[in-house]
Write a structure and sequence with these properties.
Layout lengths: L9 H5 L17 H11 L1 H4 L6 H9 L5 H20 L4
């Protein structure tokens, strides 16, 4: 934060921290973020999360167009899949 002090406005410098959230996406196949979500949620890693019903998650993805709160939820599920795969988490 201090390294960028001269490069940012006072408003940005003084604001409190807040978590990063991925931008909302659509269920469009031409959207790279949507493509990542679909690949992640339909892959084998998703099957290893016992507390999610993969077919229902995929149905939710298909119906998520113009519903940014749904895409944020799906992104959180995708993050769990990626973290489980990357760090070898066992559930």
């Amino acid at each position: 934060k201090e390294a960028a002090r001269d490069l940012v406005t006072d408003t940005l410098y003084k604001r409190t921290k807040h978590p990063f959230q991925a931008p909302p996406t659509t269920s469009s196949r031409s959207d790279p973020l949507a493509e990542f979500l679909l690949d992640t949620l339909s892959g084998d890693g998703m099957k290893q999360l016992p507390f999610y019903d993969q077919p229902r998650i995929l149905k939710l993805f298909e119906r998520s167009k113009d519903r940014p709160y749904v895409s944020r939820l799906l992104m959180r599920v995708a993050v769990l899949v990626v973290m489980q795969k990357r760090f070898g988490l066992s559930l």
